[in-house]
Design a protein that fits this description.
Organism: human gut metagenome
Oligomer: single chain
Distance between the termini: 69 Å
Strand order of the largest sheet: 12-13-14-11-16-18
Pfam families: DUF285 (PF03382)
Keywords: Lipoprotein
CATH architecture of the largest domain: Alpha-Beta Horseshoe
CATH topology of the largest domain: Leucine-rich repeat, LRR (right-handed beta-alpha superhelix)
InterPro entries: DUF285, Liste_lipo_26, LRR_dom_sf
Protein name: Lipoprotein
Radius of gyration: 26 Å
C-alpha cells in the first residue's frame, strides 16, 4: 500500500530593483575653495572631498540627495560618524544631518521613489579662545557612513513627503489678506483651481509641492486652502504662524502632519473670531512649548485636544489666556509630568466649567492651576 500526497502551487515573483545612491551634490556658495571639491564617485555610493580651513570662520558645506530609485522601501540600519576628540571640538565643528536639521538615525525610512537631502558642514569655529587654537597644522579624516537595508515593519518614519515652510510673512499672511480670511482648510490633493484670486508656493523647498491659494468667500473675504499630494508635513517651530487672523472663524487642519513640530507657541493666538477649530490629526508628541497657543481666542467655546500627547511638553504659560467664552477643554490623552512653566495658563477664562483629563496625575496638575472648574478623568 502506498499514498502519495502532493502540494502544488504557483508562485509569481515580481521583478524588483534595489538602488539607493547619492545624487545632486551642490556646494554652498559661502564655502571656501576646496583643494579637491566634493564629488560623487562613479558608483554613486561615496562622496569625496578635501579642504583646507585656514582661519576661524572658514567653512565648507554642501548638500547631497540620498535617492531610492529602486522599487523596495529602505531604512537605515547603521549610522557611523567621525567622533571628534574633546580637543578637536574646541576648534572644529562637523555635522551631517538632513536638510531640516534632524539627525540621521537607525530605522529612518526612505521609501521607494523618494529622496532625502543631507547637509554636510565642516567649520573652523569662531566661538573659541586663543588657547583653543591648534598649535600646529592638523589633518582630520572626517567620515560619515550610513547603511540602508530593506525596510521592515518596525521602521520609524522620517518625513518623505512635502514640507510646508514656517515663514509667516508674505503670501496669505500679508496685510492684503490676513484681516479678511474667514476660513482656512487643508487638502491632500495638489490641485489649484484656475479661478483663484491668488496662489503661492508655501513649500519649504520652493518646489511647489505645497501650495496655498485664496478664493472669494462671497462676502468680501477669502477662503484659503493649503494643499499637497498626501500629508502636509510641518517641522520645527511654527510659533505664531496662524496668529492675528482677525476675521478667521473656521479652521480644518486635518491634512497636517505635525509629529516633527517642537514649538506651537502662539500658534492661533488672537484669532478673535475663531469659533471652529479641528485639530484631531495633530501629533504633539515632540512639542515642548505651547505658550499662548490659544491666547486671545475669545470666541472659542469648546476645544477638543483629545489627540494631544504631551510627554515632552514643558511650558503652557498663558496657553488659554483671554479665552473669555471658553467653557470646556478635552485633554483626555495629555500628560503634564514635565511641565514647569504654566503661569496664567487659564487666565481670564471666566466661563470655563469643565476640563477632561487622562488620569489622577493630570487632574491634580490642572486642579492646582485653575479654580471653580470641574476636572473630570476620562
Amino acid at each position: 500500500m502506498s499514498t502519495t500526497l502532493n502540494i502544488t502551487g504557483v508562485s509569481n515573483i515580481k521583478s524588483a530593483k534595489w538602488d539607493v545612491h547619492f545624487d545632486n551634490l551642490k556646494v554652498n556658495n559661502d564655502s571656501v575653495t576646496a583643494t579637491s571639491p566634493a564629488v560623487i564617485d562613479a558608483t554613486k555610493t561615496a562622496v569625496n572631498y578635501s579642504v583646507s580651513l585656514l582661519k576661524p570662520g572658514d567653512s565648507y558645506s554642501f548638500t547631497v540627495d540620498v535617492v531610492n530609485a529602486g522599487t523596495i522601501d529602505a531604512m537605515v540600519s547603521v549610522v557611523s560618524n567621525t567622533g571628534l576628540s574633546d580637543e578637536q571640538k574646541k576648534y572644529i565643528s562637523y555635522s551631517v544631518t538632513y536638510s531640516n536639521d534632524l539627525d540621521v538615525n537607525t530605522k529612518d525610512s526612505l521609501n521607494a521613489g523618494y529622496k532625502r537631502k543631507l547637509r554636510v558642514i565642516v567649520k573652523y569655529r569662531t566661538d573659541l579662545d586663543a588657547s583653543d587654537l591648534p598649535t600646529e597644522d592638523k589633518i582630520l579624516n572626517l567620515t560619515f557612513k550610513v547603511t540602508y537595508i530593506q525596510a521592515d515593519s518596525s521602521k520609524n518614519d522620517i518625513v518623505t513627503g512635502s514640507i510646508m515652510n514656517n515663514d509667516g510673512t508674505g503670501n496669505y499672511h500679508s496685510d492684503t489678506y490676513k484681516s479678511k480670511i474667514t476660513k482656512i482648510v487643508t487638502s491632500n490633493k495638489l490641485v489649484v483651481p484656475n479661478n483663484v484670486v491668488e496662489k503661492w508656493d508655501v513649500s519649504k523647498n520652493q518646489d511647489e509641492s505645497v501650495m496655498a491659494y485664496a478664493e472669494d468667500d462671497g462676502n468680501g473675504g477669502y477662503v484659503v486652502t493649503i494643499c499637497s499630494d498626501g500629508k502636509i508635513y510641518l517641522e520645527g517651530s511654527y510659533g505664531g504662524f496662524f496668529s492675528n487672523f482677525s476675521a478667521l472663524t473656521s479652521m480644518d487642519l486635518s491634512d497636517f502632519d505635525t509629529k516633527n513640530v517642537v514649538s506651537m507657541n502662539g500658534l492661533f493666538a488672537s484669532c478673535v473670531s475663531l469659533t471652529e477649530l479641528s485639530l484631531n490629526s495633530f501629533d504633539t508628541s515632540n512639542v515642548t512649548d505651547m505658550n499662548s497657543m490659544f491666547g486671545g481666542c475669545n470666541n472659542l467655546i469648546s476645544i477638543d485636544l483629545s489627540s494631544f500627547k504631551t510627554s515632552k511638553l514643558t511650558s503652557i504659560t498663558a496657553m488659554f489666556a483671554g479665552c473669555i467664552n471658553l467653557t470646556s477643554i478635552n485633554f483626555k490623552n495629555a500628560t503634564f509630568d514635565n511641565v514647569t512653566s504654566y503661569g496664567g495658563a487659564f487666565s481670564g477664562c471666566s466661563k470655563l466649567a469643565k476640563i477632561i483629563v487622562k488620569d489622577t496625575a493630570a487632574k491634580n496638575f490642572i486642579s492646582g492651576k485653575v479654580s471653580g472648574v470641574d476636572v473630570i478623568i476620562a
